[in-house]
Amino acid sequence: MTENTDLAQARAGDDAAFTRLVQPLQRELHAHCYRMLGSVHDADDALQEALVRAWRGLPRFEGRSTLRSWLYTVATRTCLDLVKTRDRRALPVDLGPSSDHAVLDAAPVTEQPWLGPYHDVGLDYEQREAVELAFVAALQHLPGNQRAALLLFDVLGFSAAEIAAMMDASTTSVNSALARARRVVADRVPGPSQQPTLRTLGDARVRALVTGFATALERGDADALVALLTADVTWSMPPLAQWYGGLPAVTDFAVEVPLTRCPSWRHLPTTANGQPAVAFYLGRSAEGPHEAWSITVFGLRGERIAEITSFLGPDHFPAFGLPSELP
After folding, report:
1. Are 38 and 142 in contact (CB under 8 A)?
2. Dihedral, CA atoms, 121, 124, 127, 129, nearest 10 degrees?
3. Helix axis angle, 160-167 to 171-188, nearest 10°
4. pTM higher than 0.70 for the full model?
5. Angle at alpha carbon of residue 250, lines to 247 and 252, rounded to 5°
6. pLDDT tens figures, 226-269
7. CA-to-CA distance for 240 and 257, rounded, in angstroms?
8. Which of these, 208, 219, 148, 209, lies nearest to 180 by C-alpha position?
9. Measured between alpha carbons, how far is 267 from 253 in angstroms, rounded to an integer?
10. CB 106 within 8 A of CB 242
11. Which of 96, 202, 240, 249 is deepest in the core (most CB within 10 A)?
C-alpha cells in the first residue's frame, strides 16, 4: 500500500515520494554499479545518472515488473553506456610480469584506469562475496553484455528471460553471453571465495593477522611481517605498475621501501571488497602528523596473507569515511 501510494505520488512529480521508493535499494544498486565499472567514483556517477533517468522515465513505468527489477534495468543500461566509452580498469597483475626485486622511485601510471577499492559496510554475506577483488577484477576482462548477464543472473538471481528484457536482447544471446562470461571468470578466479576462509578463521584471528601486519610495518619488524605471509604471496600497489610475486621478492620490496624509506606509519582497521583491510597513514616522523597513504586489502589463505593490494592515494579515503590525516 505504501509503495503504491509513493509510486502514484512520484509519478505525479513528488520527488520526496520517489526518494522513499528508491532509498532502500540504493546501497545494492551502488554495489551493482561498482561491480560493473570497477570504481567507486564511476559507481557514484552511474547511480546518480540512473536515478535521474528513472525519475524522468517513471511515468512510463507500467508495473509489468517489480520496481526493483526496473531500477536494475535502468542502472545496468546506464553502466553499459559508460562501459562503451571507457577503458577497462585493471590491477598491476593484469599488465605485466612481477618484479623480482624492489623498484625504487617508481612513478605512478596515470594513463591506465585502475580498479579501486570498495567500502563494503552494509552489504550482506552474498553481496560481500560478489565485490571481492579477484571477482571484480575478473569482470573487467568481460565485454559489457557478458559482465551484465553474469551479474544479473549469478549474483542477483534474475532469470535469463528477465535479463533479455532488461538488455533488449534474446534469451539465447543472454545464455550464450552467460556461458562465455562464466568460463573467463572461472579461469581468472580459480580459488575459493574469501568468505569461507574468513568465517573459518573467525573475527579474532583475522583481526590478529591484519593487526600483526600493520604493527610489524609500524615497528619496522621485517621478520614479524614476513612470518605472516604465504610462500607465493603477491603485493601490488596501483597506480604503480610494478608488483611483486613470491616471498623473496615481496620481502625485498618490504625491507627496501616501506620498512626502510618510509619514516613512520600509523593505521586504522577497515574492510574493503568483503575482505579485511587497513588504512595506512605515512608521517615524516613518529611525533608529527600522518597523511592518508593507502587502503590496503588482504587476501587470506589458511592462516597466512596470500595477497596484498595497496590502493595508493588519499582520494580513496572519503568513501570509507576515514580522515585524511591522523594527528
Report:
1. no
2. 90
3. 100
4. yes
5. 105
6. 999 999 999 999 999 999 999 999 999 999 999 999 999 999 99
7. 14
8. 148
9. 20
10. yes
11. 249
